[in-house]
Amino acid sequence: MKQTIRSFALGLLVAGIIILASFYFTADTRQASQKLSTDEMITSIENEGYHVLSESEYISVSVKSDNSENNSEETENEKNKQDTSTDKNKENQQKKENKNEDDNSDSNNESKDSTENDSDKKETVTYTLTVESGMAPSVISNKLAENNIIDNADKFTQYMENHDYTQMVQLGEFKFTSDMSHYEIAEKLTN
Question: Where in the chain are the domains?
Answer without folding.
Answer: 2-52, 57-87+123-190
